[in-house]
Amino acid sequence: MEAIPFIGIVRHRIGIDGKGVTTLAAFHGCPLRCRYCLNHACLESPDNLYRYTPESLFERVRIDNLYFLATGGGLCFGGGEPLLRTAFIRRFRELCGNDWRLTAETSLAVPRSAVEEAAELIDDFIVDIKDCNPVIYKEYTGRGNRRAINNLRWLLKKKGAEHITVRVPLIPNYNSDADRDSSVEKLKEWGVTNIDKFDYIVRPNKQ
């Protein structure tokens, strides 16, 4: 498999990207254009980024194998959008086996086929839903939210609510506390039980 660009590899993350001790591996590339993108590099030229194959990434992160095994942790694929790279993740799963917990931080704004494949490979999902209001979502991301919401509802049935955390941000200038509360109520109606409410720190996109 051809090596692909990553915007960063960060070790020893605890309580941020899944259970136990995790290493975050952030892919380049994203289907959204969020106004306050937290990882600008995922939208910029990949020319100066490190590139990995599944094999070379595995060799880099396996140094923390004992931490992963002792804490029930493993690798968290982020980005960017990791579900655009399911072939890479599939090969990585073959290399690490089932001993490591694999988590994906995703917007779910991808084709259903990618979500279906990821559901067979990923243990836990952290979903950044932005806002359930389609107008707010589109103003903030540049895309509609129907795909993301339909994928979330499918994933809840497939994986079970215990494997899915949904992050619902307060986005300055785009939504309000009332908007966020409305999103939380909808998520609960759909069966989401793990909800992480937080506030964005404004960092305007360079675009």
Would you write up a description of this structure?
- This protein has 207 residues and is of the alpha/beta class.
- It has one domain (4-199): TIM Barrel.
- It has seven helices and eight strands, in the order E-E-E-H-H-E-H-E-H-E-H-H-E-H-E.
- The protein has an eight-stranded mixed β-sheet with strand order 3-1-2-4-5-6-7-8.
Describe the SSE topology.
Layout lengths: L3 E11 L6 E7 L22 E3 L1 H8 L3 H7 L2 E5 L7 H11 L4 E6 L5 H10 L2 E5 L5 H8 L4 H14 L4 E7 L6 H14 L3 E6 L8
Helix pairs in contact: 1-3, 3-4, 4-6
Highlighted features:
207 residues, alpha/beta, TIM Barrel, 8-stranded mixed beta sheet, 7 helices, 8 strands, 35% helix, 24% strand
State the strand order across the main sheet. Answer: 3-1-2-4-5-6-7-8
**DSSP strand tally:** 8
Instruction: Give the overall pLDDT as a whole number.
Output: 94
From the alpha carbons, calculate the radius of gyration and give it in angstroms: 16 Å
Structural class: alpha/beta
Unreliable parts: none
Net shape: globular
Question: How helical, in percent, are the residues?
Answer: 25-40%
Named CATH architecture: Alpha-Beta Barrel
Specify the CATH homologous superfamily.
Aldolase class I
Report the β-strand fraction as a percent range.
Answer: 15-25%
Q: SSE order in H/E notation?
A: EEEHHEHEHEHHEHE
Q: How would you name the oligomeric state of the polypeptide chains in this document?
A: single chain
> Please, how many helices?
7
